[in-house]
Amino acid sequence: MFIIQRLKSEVLTDKSIDITDLYGFDFNFDQGLNIIAGPNSRGKTTINTCIYYALGMEELLGAHNEKALDKALKQEFVIKPNDDEENYYRVLSSKILLEVKNDNNKVVTLERYIKSSSSEFKTSNINVYNGSIADLSKEDYDLNLEIFYVNGEGNNDGLNGFYNWFSEFINIELPEVSNSSRTSNYSPLYLQTIFSALFIEQTKGWSDFFATMPFFGITKAKEKIVEFLLNLNEINLSTKKDILSKEKSFLTEEWRKKIRAFSYLERKNNSTIINVPGELTTDKTLIEKITGQFAVSETDKININQFLELKSEHVRELEQRPLSTIRENREIALATFNKEKEDYYKLQEYIERFENKLRVDSQQSVILISQLKTVESEIKDHNNLKKVFNENIISERGANQCPTCSQEVTVDLISTKNIKIPQLTLEENTNFLKGQKKIIESSMGSLKETLEEKNNLLLYFKNTLRQKEILLKSLSKDLISDDRAFSESEVVKKLQIEREIEDVRIYQGAIDELKEELKVLANKYLNNTIEFGKLGESELEDETKLSTFEDKYKDFLFNFGYESNVRYQISINRKEPFKYFPVYKNHSNDPIPQSIRINSSASDFVRNIWAYTLALLKNGQNTPGIIMFDEPGQHRTNLNSLKALFKACSDISDKQTIIFTSIDKPLGNEENEKIDLDILIEDLDVNKYKLIRLDDTLKVIQKLG
């Protein structure tokens, strides 16, 4: 855990006499409740976003680096000494200093530049000093500066990644979770996602639970956050379950490949394989029953051993009897010739159709390769764009000029007012393209296997055609030869039967080999099932934690004046959908839970977010120990509810709550109430909160003393 002790901004302007003549603000914070109150447009949002920025959490505000901050900290600001005078100050350089202390009482200062005249100080880096802000000005103090990066791969798990360092500083060990956007399929539970549950900003934060959570490709990210904060066993079990599920999926796919291999053997050997289990099984007796059959008539089939015995008997007959003359064998030869000729042309026609289909499949492979190149090119372009924005190639310097054409551009390149379609960030687009790439690669892999099988079948069909051609030539030669000559077709027939016997034995060996491979898969599947069964042993402990969390959430909720439903209709859901989140049920046995948002008034849903966030802070065992509410008086809520919120926050004295609130702002409720700070704090113990009251007329950025 950690608390914020001090926040300071330092701005060097065009009117500064020297580098020590600075502007900005400087505030101290306490453990427990901190209230930053003031009229609109006095700088509450500026202070709020500076905390996000100093902690590397500006992505929760929907921007990277200094783009999340107000222009007063990076372009210009105004100071009005009186109603008739306005002095404009152009920003030359600026930075934020945030002093934080962890639960081991270690104090560090985070320094992050907003604008710098030197390339040495990047806005994508955070400098960490060992000591307080006051210690920075001491000449002999060993500050032990360390530099960490915010943006870029490895920022959560790399040695020099800020979030990796910060999670260690606040004594949080980030678990590995499933992540579809990582090549390894796993990543840490990014610290930014955790803070989306704790920092509720004014614009988007009150619209849903964890509404500002960035997209990182984490599977069921909201569930993972709750599991982590409440220290549920499921956070580790879910990763193990995911590993076992992926192993099960792999085993299932391998099983299906083996089943397809049986189908390939059937076609290659003109036979039928029976008793093949359609689904993955651990019953070895079912696998043992798999066997091949050959049709000997339209109605009769025999197994492989019987077929081998039949063919062997035929060979023995041919060997034991003397060679026939053509005269003796002419009628049989003619009938055989006509049948073999008919079969030959049928097979030839089938091969032609087969080759046409194979060419279509091969063309599909070419199309997939082209699509893959296109997607890879788009991913590369997106990554380059991310570098452009992350490295501030397009920066806000004076006229905001495009680096290519020198045209003036605004911070918002397009108006989103009339856009109805969902807008994805670069990160979301990139992850979508990576998902498309995986789909195409998977399709290419499957198609490659199919093409290999079909090419092998084609070789088999052509080889069979050649054997028929050899037999037809022998039969044709017999039919036009001298009647007294010996029949050559009988010799060819005997050789072909012997070859057929050898092919069937190879076929039997291939079936036996596949059966052994199925047994190996069955053993692995059995072990997988056993391991899955062991994971259910920790669910009872999780249920105890969830029940306690649910009680605390509901206590807060109804204390805040929630009226849309009665207490027994509200619960924390234990399964999908809305797992770990509040739901509405008409009665306890209602099988279909409904979203609490659509079953609550707008103001009551805001109360839900208050209650849920505070319950996470109060009951969380892995919580960073801080929450931040920006303008909680939303959607026609009332003073009594806000008063109860402030009281509940002040009672959690072992952690830190920071509330930014307007004063004299109409709440828009039926009582026509305004936010009255005196009423909100009148029942609070003066020792349990700190009030930072902003000036009624002056903005927050002033000359530093």
From TrEMBL:
Residues 497-531 form a coiled coil. GO terms for biological process: double-strand break repair. One of its GO terms (molecular function) is ATP hydrolysis activity. Keywords: Coiled coil. Residues 25-126 form the Rad50/SbcC-type AAA domain. This is Rad50/SbcC-type AAA domain-containing protein. It comes from Chryseobacterium indoltheticum.
